[in-house]
Structure formats: C-alpha cells, structure tokens
Design a protein that fits this description.
Layout lengths: L8 H67 L1 H7 L6 H5 L2 H7 L3 E5 L5 E7 L6 E4 L8
Antiparallel strand pairs: 1-2, 2-3
Length: about 140
Amino acid sequence: MLPTSPSSLSARFLLALSGVLLFAMLALVLISLYVVRPALLEEESIEASAVLQRIESAVNNNKEFLLAQARDWANWDDTYDFIQGKNPNYGSVNFSRDVFNDLHYQMMALFNNDGELRWIAGIDPVDGSYAACVDLNKCLI
C-alpha cells in the first residue's frame, strides 16, 4: 500500500524517482528530436543522392550507347539508300529477331530527314513475337 502522507520518506523517494524518470524521458525525447533524427535524415539524404547519381550515370551510359548505335546505323551507305527508298529489302536483310536479341533492343525505327517514319520493327514485350514493317501503308501502327 502506498503511503498517503507526502512527508513520509517513501512518498518523497517515489516522488523524486518519478521526477527523475520524467526528466530522463524528456531528455531522451529531446536528444532523439535534435540530435539523432537530424543525423539520420542527413545520412539518408547522402545515400539517396548517391543512389540517384548511380541511376543518372546508368541512364547516361545507355543513352551514349544508343546514340553511338544510331550514328553507326546512320553512317552506313545501305541505310542511307534505304531511307531514300533505293533499297527496299534492306530492313528484312539486315534486321532480324537475332539482331534485336544480340543488341538487347525491343524496338527500332528509322526516319527520313523530314522526320517521317520509314521503317519500324520490334519484339512484343507481352508475347515475345518479332514483327517488322517495311511498307508503312500496310502496317497498323
């Protein structure tokens, strides 16, 4: 049974112990709010920045690779002739499912200088089928 008189030694001890407990809890809350939490947020921000930098680097590397591939295809005389309409079999001869698999492409499109689509081919990501469209008037795009 707890003593009812505040002047008793056990009551003063429990009151002092409760005060120390409240003070310790308040100190822990303040330390977590003003010391631990900002340090964790700063660490999280640094790590997130590093991850975003790695992602940006990967995207830029892939972009550079794709631009190099596009320049290579554009520099071929046969590709130029195909875009000009001089080599109608170019797409079926030079592009196949194996080419797409080897280069890890899902789609490729060739445009003329006016920005008009000249040829398109790709692998359907749903069923994995390969299709190429040489005569764009007959294709459903």
